[in-house]
Amino acid sequence: MNVFALIVGEMYPGGLCLHILPDVLWYDVAGGKSRADLRMCTLDNYLDICRQYDKSCVVELKAYYSVEELQALVEMIESRYDLERVIFISFHYDDLVKLRGILPNAKIQWLFKEFTDETIEKLTAARFDAAISSKILTEELVRQFHENGLGVNVWVVNDRETAERFVAWGV
Question: Are 148 and 129 in contact (CB under 8 A)?
Answer without folding.
Answer: no
